[in-house]
Amino acid sequence: MKNIAPIHPGIVAVSRDCFPLELSLMRKKKIMAQCKEKQVSVTEIDTVIENEQHVLKVLEEIKQKNINCLIIYLGNFGPETPVTMLAQRFNGPVMIVAAAEESKNDLINGRGDAFCGMLNTSYSCGLRKLNPYIPEYPVGIPEDAAFMIKDFLPVARILLSLKRLKIFSFGPRPQDFIACNAPIKPLYDLGVEIMENSELDLYDIYTSASGDARIPGVVKEMEQELGKGNTYPEILPKLAQYEVALVQFLENNTGASDYGIFANKCWPAFEKFFGFVPCYVNSRLASRGIPVSCEVDIYGALSEYILTCATESPATILDINNTVPYDLIEQNKDNVKQYKASDLFMGFHCGNTSACCLVDPKINYQLIMHRLMEPEKIPDITRGTLEGRFIPGDATIFRLQSKADTGIMAYIAQGEVLPIEPGSFGSIGVIGIKEMARFYRHVLIEKRYPHHTAVTFTHSGKILFSALKVLGISDISYNKQKGDLYATENPF
Fold first, then answer.
1. Which helix (H) or strand (E) holds 168?
2. Does residue 344 form part of some domain?
3. pTM tops 0.90
4. Of the candidates 140, 162, 184, which is a domain's last residue?
5. Using one digit for the tens of pLDDT, what is the confidence trace for 172-191?
6. In the listed set 162, 194, 227, which residue is the last one of a domain according to the structure?
7. Whether 82 and 37 share a structural domain
8. pLDDT (tens digit, 9 = 90+) per residue, 261-274?
9. SS3 of residue 103 by DSSP
């Protein structure tokens, strides 16, 4: 995916001058060997930091080696002043990890005391107001450290991408979608830029793309992707024109940023003037790492993008939509697994989920819009959704959201898409999340979250939680398990 930041991690060892420098060097070499074995690409920084002069030397080496995320390794106790000075002066995500002792046979000259040094380093980070990535248990032998580094890399990718992201919005929110509120101050707090535009701007860039030489090529791509699901081939040129227009606008307007995503008005006036619904185009751009959220949901688009950076796979935005009827559960009792009825819900949207995430995707029309705009008529301007059932497997729902007072909060819950035919329309699937009913009441309702959730079809909670902590977001909710009460939950 080209719309997310590439990561070029580097590792630097540090050594307190009253400990053997060779201990840090030797342990760093072992980590490099473990990273190579686990296919984790990391650049080794030759200089070992013992003092402030070494910090300057390392910063120059980082620049020469094009390193944009940094692992600081305490091979022994470590000098907390130059360590945190490096973290402060390095312009990118920083991870700090420490060495565990490796053998009972080498606890005199081979004892590094990094377990102790990590505490002083953490204290010094607080003095400098730094918030580096520190693993849940940040002390380990080289093999452990290699796994910690592997966990850090997707977190670094999120942090680097957000610093270089611009969100393009088109149009005000539709009436009665005020829940998709978007105070922009928290975006700037996260380092994200935003460019707000009108629906007229969107129509202008679409009409200006008429006759673009790229349109026939995009139509062919669509035909190949859809296969037998190409049920309305006559609307593909319009959809291709819209896709070309959005991509060109992104390229022309990223400005000082490197990456862009969209939050676009998609109804009710859109269909009358454009002559289609934009869902299929939204699905295609999502597969390229460019989420396009519906209904000008700016924080929904940002949530999708964070998921994309975390997983390097397409995300989607869905309504936490409807309950699953008891007779459908009974009919599929073997596929419901360990979930209770109240753990289940249907995730749904008109048709914006990428084709690679759907079973037998096909172009269709938006039934709800058709009721309103073309009642008792053959579908015309309401065509353009991509319908299909989600492929069964792991899933994570996630949302980063501004509060009304411009504070910021987030939730994460892991579950799975179940192999159940929903018997409904749109991009849709039955999703099971343990203790969903309590999560729905005491997080989604209690904290005033909107109906949209970003979804990725994998488990990514660990990455998301770590990234949110480094971003300084303290209000992070998740689905608590039975017996673990929410603060607002009635204990009786």
1. strand 165-170
2. yes
3. yes
4. 162
5. 877 777 766 778 999 999 99
6. 162
7. yes
8. 999 998 888 999 99
9. coil
Instruction: Note whether 146 and 169 are same-domain residues.
Output: no
List the one residue out of 402, 391, 368, 202 whose CA is nearest residue 297. 402
pLDDT tens digits, 382-434: 999 999 999 999 999 999 999 888 899 999 999 999 999 999 999 999 999 99
Q: Which of 189, 184, 407 is nearest to 299 (CA)?
A: 184
| SS3 (DSSP) at 419 | coil
Which residues, at least 6 apart from 183, have a Cβ–Cβ distance to it below 8 Å? 402, 404, 406
Closest by Cα among 297, 266, 268 to 450: 297
Burial status of residue 275 (CB atoms within 10 A of its CB: 0-12, 13-18, 19 or more):
middle
Residues spanned by the domain of 81: 9-162
Question: Which residue spans within 356-440 are E strands per DSSP?
Answer: 358-365, 383-390, 393-402, 408-417, 427-432
What is the bridge-based pairing of β-strands 427-432 and 344-349?
Answer: antiparallel
Quick one: 246 and 220 in the same domain?
Answer: yes
Tokens (6 digits) for 328 = 């459908």
289 plus 141 within the same structural domain: no
Give the total number of structural domains in the chain. 2
